[in-house]
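call fold target=Poly-beta-1,6-N-acetyl-D-glucosamine N-deacetylase
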Amino acid sequence: MNAPNVPVLMYHHVTPAGGMIAATPDVFEAQIARLARAGYQSLSAGQFAAYLAGGDAPERSVLITFDDGYLNNWVHAHPVLARYGMRAVLFTITGWIGDGPVRLHAGQGGPLPATPDHDACKQLVAAGRADEAMLRWSEIEAMLAAGTFEFHSHTHTHTRWDKVCGADTDAKRAHIAQELRDSRETLERRLGQASDHLCWPQGYFDADYVAAARQAGFRHLYTTDPFGQNTPGADPGHIYRFAVRNQGGSWLNRRIWLSRDPFWGPRFHAWKAWKKRLRNRG
């Protein structure tokens, strides 16, 4: 039986530091183990794209995504995915990734590198110390070789050019176009290829962003909008994702069921959207 729709899960960090947009390693393992026991299969970006275009996917399918490319994705998420035979898609800020030898990950023995929380990672990047927070190309290559992660664009510098440029629309458009060129060229140079999958920084996009993405060859555009279902024939230019909380596997299974059920899913999303509108009015 074909999947009624494919929920797309959004992670950022897996770290004992916890904090905002993070799962702790124990919780992440509980979530992935529960998905595996329930018979879910994690799709590749290519399989997901084929499904959106009208193809088949196993009835219990998910797409697991990570944003940005933090070191903790290698140290803590990679060994869990490998243990359970699952895979994830990582949207990479290509300008923040550096060179150097592969660092230790959990399960290898020896002291692990520090994996700071989200705010500390942002501070390290701003201070020119991105290597302490972000992946290295050597680690990306190791994850690719292991089949736990594949890598796609999250722009080159994660800059919101609509904020930086203000009313200067021409400058905004030029910067966005350059961001996407730099990201694509970096992925091609370092990994040998770049796909047509792109995730928006901070989930923001407008008509200029979408036009630039399409001009640059990106067709599958990932949002932070959780209020919809990804079904065969759905618009690949607006892919729905929901943020995974730092809660156990039973929470995630319930959340996936609510997202994927053909009857309750649309009603759940409409209710959540209504609640968000009420909060915004208040």
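return ok
The longest helix spans residues 169-191. The chain is about 45% helix and 15% strand.
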